[in-house]
Automatic annotation (TrEMBL):
Belongs to the GatC family. GO terms for biological process: glutaminyl-tRNAGln biosynthesis via transamidation; regulation of translational fidelity; translation. Its EC number is 6.3.5.-. It comes from Paenibacillus tyrfis. The lineage of its organism: Bacteria, Bacillati, Bacillota, Bacilli, Bacillales. Heterotrimer of A, B and C subunits. Allows the formation of correctly charged Asn-tRNA(Asn) or Gln-tRNA(Gln) through the transamidation of misacylated Asp-tRNA(Asn) or Glu-tRNA(Gln) in organisms which lack either or both of asparaginyl-tRNA or glutaminyl-tRNA synthetases. The reaction takes place in the presence of glutamine and ATP through an activated phospho-Asp-tRNA(Asn) or phospho-Glu-tRNA(Gln). It catalyses: L-aspartyl-tRNA(Asn) + L-glutamine + ATP + H2O = L-asparaginyl-tRNA(Asn) + L-glutamate + ADP + phosphate + 2 H(+); L-glutamyl-tRNA(Gln) + L-glutamine + ATP + H2O = L-glutaminyl-tRNA(Gln) + L-glutamate + ADP + phosphate + H(+). The gene is gatC. Pfam families: GatC. This is Aspartyl/glutamyl-tRNA(Asn/Gln) amidotransferase subunit C. Keywords: ATP-binding, Ligase, Nucleotide-binding, Protein biosynthesis, Transferase.
């Protein structure tokens, strides 16, 4: 498969980009170089390679959850614009 100038023009139209003739030729060459490189990768033997979703292992950098005492409800409701039955009352957003 190769990219043509017509393909580049089509994508540019979808992206609402105006490209000069020189840019169209340049992008055509660059995209074909990318496809050529991808073709080289297809020739590699990957039978013994485990599928992965990430190239590097992911490590959770967040701290562990800790159970801690919360604020008393009376103190929380001091900041509420309005309260009803021990809950924060807000204006209705649905009709």
């Amino acid at each position: 498969m190769s990219i043509t100038v017509k393909d580049v023009e089509h994508v540019a139209a979808l992206a609402r980009l105006e490209l000069s003739d020189r840019e169209k030729e340049q992008f055509t060459e660059q995209l074909n170089a990318i496809l050529k490189y991808a073709g080289q990768l297809e020739q590699l033997n990957t039978d013994d390679v485990e599928p992965t979703s990430h190239a590097m292992p992911l490590v959770n950098v967040m701290r562990e959850d800790e159970v801690r005492p919360s604020l008393p409800i009376e103190k929380v409701l001091l900041n509420a614009p309005d309260e009803e039955d021990g809950q924060i009352k807000v204006p209705a957003v649905l009709e």
